[in-house]
Amino acid sequence: MSNSEISISTISYNKKEDLRILNACLSSWFSDPKILHFVHPGMTYPFKIGRWINLSYLNKSTTFILKYNNWIIGHLSIRINKESESAHLFHLIIDSDYQRNGYAKKLIIHAEKVITKKNINKININVMKKNQIAKKLYNSLGYLDISINKSGKIKMLKNLV
Q1: Is the model's pTM score more than 0.85?
Q2: In the CATH scheme, what architecture does the domain 3-114 have?
């Protein structure tokens, strides 16, 4: 697959047409409750876009989508906290038909570049202990475990400086 077939763009949960597209993608990806739990343990099955937004998108965030041949195959959101000079990556999802091809890594690297341009020097991400594939990816990109809670959610941190 050549890079010319791949693009990353910003999409908004606040725009009606973008929301329609996001709902279609997310509903398809989260037809498996296990995937929904890995991405957002606080969400209940079946997936409902309104609950998704209420739990995670009422505060300012930026969402990126990754397209392959103009088909959305990936999603990643970031939230920047200027006071703590940190950013939080969340809701990284790659369509199951396209996993293990480096697309999650591309989205994370893109987000890191955007975050760096905003003079933010720390990024954190949460991952469920059971999601070893994602944890391995984050470790390979320089994210380190800093804590784990009772439910098995690991908080990871990367310093960009």
Answers
A1: yes
A2: 3-Layer(aba) Sandwich (3.40)
